[in-house]
Design brief:
Layout: H1 6-18, H2 29-33, E1 40-45, E2 53-56, E3 62-63, E4 73-84, E5 87-91, H3 94-101, H4 105-116, E6 126-131, H5 157-161, H6 163-173, E7 179-184, H7 208-224, E8 231-233, H8 251-268, E9 275-282, H9 286-294, H10 297-300, E10 305-309, H11 321-330, E11 335-340, H12 355-369, E12 372-379, E13 381-383, E14 399-401, E15 408-410, H13 412-421, E16 429-435, E17 440-446, E18 452-458, E19 464-470, E20 473-479, E21 483-488
Parallel strand pairs: 4-19, 5-6, 5-12, 6-7, 7-8, 8-9, 9-10, 10-11, 11-12, 13-14
Antiparallel strand pairs: 1-2, 1-21, 3-20, 4-16, 14-15, 16-17, 17-18, 18-21, 19-20
Helix pairs in contact: 3-6, 7-8, 8-9, 9-11, 12-13
Length: 489
């Protein structure tokens, strides 16, 4: 068998990542596997102590050939590549920043390492923050004086107390780079037809230009603070009238605001490179909103992608992943990005329940397989009450910090997210990963360093031995009950 060096293997894998999804080039199995000495498996499992734990470092592939129907398999094909990963992360809200500020320096460092270090933590690379207040703020606020249509009084002093210091520390902890996008929950009350930042309402037509310039002022102010802004969404949850900050846009409203106001203002201020995200709401109406905006060429030229949340389950149904595929196949030049999700309603008695993590794993795997390029959890961490929150909308986060005792609680969702964020890095390309058993959910990516990460989640209550099969070679692995594992090779 011909031997190749690790460097040659990396070159081969990188060549896979350059191939379009439709390429038909086939590599010999011997060429692919002869450079791999050790393969690693990291596992998180219920009813065990396994939490992102290295459980095997010596798996060896062997000739396998045609699997039988009785042999569970996960089939991986690195020669077929799809979307490129932007990153995985969470929102740095006022609530997260205020919780952080109440902790001791050593606990602050623990949290920064836990989320942003690739060695000590789960390596977050993506972040979101709010323009003006949101439900996860301790108060309702804006950055301008009332009725200042010219925005002469605009300043971000409010954010300098808690949010900006945390974002800067997160950037450092992430190695000096954090992909940040920003989202408004509501314009100032005087710009709206209900004269209220809460309870829905709509932007008054006379203030469309002022509101578009508001985004520009915010981005410029943050960048003066040495916080680069990668992108922005038009409006958080534009079809939800909430008891907290909210603002309603129909599809036509959002299309026209982008086309006639926000898009041109971004270009006018040399910010056209910022990634503009439309919708930023649930999967249920995502196709209707995407088609309304993107079928208008003048609006579509400003839009980078479509953002979505997972709260369509409020109806009692399940997550609607097929709707994402409809958008991806209809508008292949645009991007899908998960912009928010959390488990509701917070209850400290449920903080160790396993379903929290499985909800994340199920969503992330299916979202990525549908074409999603970035995945942003809601609050990175919260306090012992699931807040602070000025409207009592307390929710779970991957980590909760007791601001009275300093104790840090890591939920199962932290580890489930980490099974992907730690091993699937920005620039990675999704490759084929297909399971022969419905209990085994899987996705896989080829990283720019040549490594391949295959994620396998078992949402059943039984052990499932299976073969990871690539081009006629396979290795046997056992998936533990209610577990998620990442195989890296």
């Amino acid at each position: 068998m011909k031997k190749i060096s690790l460097l040659t293997l990396v070159v081969l894998l990188l060549s896979f990542s350059r191939q379009p999804a439709s390429n038909n080039r086939v590599y010999a199995a011997n060429d692919f596997f002869s450079g791999a000495k050790k393969n690693k498996v990291y596992t998180t499992a219920d009813s065990t102590n396994l939490r992102l734990t290295l459980t095997d470092s010596s798996l060896q592939f062997a000739d396998f050939g045609q699997p039988k129907e009785t042999q569970p398999c996960v089939f991986v094909d690195p020669t077929k590549t799809f979307q490129t990963m932007v990153g995985i992360g969470g929102a740095l809200t006022d609530a997260t920043a205020e919780t952080f500020a109440k902790l001791s320096a050593d606990k602050q460092q623990e949290l920064l390492d836990a989320f942003y270090s690739t060695k000590k933590g789960i390596g977050y690379t993506l972040a979101r923050t709010n323009i003006n207040s949101c439900d996860f703020s301790s108060d309702t606020y804006t950055y301008v004086a009332d009725n200042d249509k010219q925005l002469k009084t605009f300043n971000i002093d409010h954010d300098r107390k808690f949010k900006i210091p945390l974002i800067k520390k997160a950037i450092v902890a992430a190695g000096g780079k954090l992909t940040l996008f920003v989202s408004p929950w509501s314009p100032p009350s005087w710009m709206k037809d209900n004269n209220d930042m809460l309870h829905g309402g709509k932007l008054k037509a006379d203030y469309a230009d002022a509101w578009a310039n508001y985004y520009i002022k915010f981005i410029q102010a943050y960048e003066k603070e040495n916080i680069p802004v990668w992108g922005l969404s038009v409006q958080n949850e534009p079809m939800a009238t909430q008891r907290w900050e909210s603002c309603i846009y129909t599809g036509e409203d959002e299309r026209d605001f982008i086309k006639n106001h926000l898009g041109p203002v971004l270009y006018k201020n040399n910010l056209s490179a910022k990634k503009l995200i439309a919708w930023d709401h649930n999967r249920d109406l995502i196709y209707q909103r995407a088609s309304t905006v993107l079928n208008d060429k003048e609006a579509a030229k400003y839009v980078w992608g479509i953002g979505f949340h997972w709260y369509e389950t409020w109806t009692g149904g399940t997550m609607q992943f097929e709707n994402l595929k409809r958008v991806a196949e209809t508008f292949p030049s645009k991007h899908l990005i998960f912009t928010e999700g959390c488990a509701e309603v917070f209850n400290m008695q449920k903080i160790n329940e396993w379903w929290l993590g499985e909800k994340y794993g199920r969503s992330m795997i299916n979202d990525f397989n549908a074409g999603t390029v970035g995945w942003t959890d809601w609050n990175v961490f919260l306090d012992e009450n699931g807040g602070p929150n000025h409207v009592g909308n307390f929710c779970f986060a991957p980590v909760h910090a007791d601001t009275k005792t300093g104790k840090i609680y890591y939920t199962s969702s932290y580890y489930y997210i980490g099974q992907l964020s730690k091993f699937i890095r920005p620039g990675a390309k999704r490759i084929i990963s297909s399971s022969s058993r419905s209990e085994l959910l899987t996705t896989a990516f080829a990283n720019t360093d040549g490594s391949i990460a295959v994620v396998v989640m078992n949402d059943s209550g039984k052990n499932i031995p299976y073969h990871l099969w690539i081009a006629g070679k396979a290795v046997e692995v056992t998936s533990l009950p209610h577990s998620i594992a990442t195989l890296v090779f």
